[in-house]
Amino acid sequence: DVMALRARSAGEGRRESEEVQRLHRESITALREACELEPTRASAHQSLVKQLSAAGRVEEERSAAQRAIDLGLGLWAHPLQRPEHFLKGLSSAPWHDAKSFPWCQELEQNFGVIRDELQAALVHPTSWPLVSYGELRLTQGTGAWREIILLGPHSRLGRKLCPETAKLLDRIPGAKALAKHPAGCGNAIFSKIDAGTHLQAHCGPTNTRLTCHLGIDVPEAVGLAEKWGRARAGP
Known about the structure:
Layout: H1 2-37, H2 42-54, H3 58-70, H4 102-109, H5 111-121, H6 133-136, E1 145-151, H7 156-161, H8 163-170, H9 173-180, E2 188-193
Antiparallel strand pairs: 1-2
Helix pairs in contact: 1-2, 2-3
């Protein structure tokens, strides 16, 4: 019956999760050994950091990145910024000044329009799918993280629900170019995070791309890691 199928599915899910965790542990052990045997082999350190990230072992991930930095392997400049693709010489900061980017100011100036379209979209709960698996794992099973895509693949519904916001995004050449790139280099979304959701500390896949967040409805209790500041709504 349905309940039996659900129970069997849940059991299979747990076994799959346990198997993934086992593979992570074995991979991490092997990569640590590789880093000890060949300390100057940059690819081993990079793979170790990637596996630690996938396993959700953030502090160990940062420690492994710091060791690679100390060895002068040229992979990263700071343990909090450890993407798979790293271009040397670019400025790095927890926050970049929005005033340096005219398109950020245009989004802020149209905050009311964006907020109204978001609120209207909230009455369509079935239009908010969960984010992709790679991002969803950052919740570590807490709460729910959903999105409406406005720029990039699978954005048709989002652009229909939020046409004015989509037009604003279309006027940002860099964002539009990334979203249209065949490699899927970026998108623009409305992001909805349920109460009780905790996102694991993380960094993006490359330091050649900046992420812009415009808070629309941000509870006072929402905090950010590393004491960099607090999230807030509006410009």
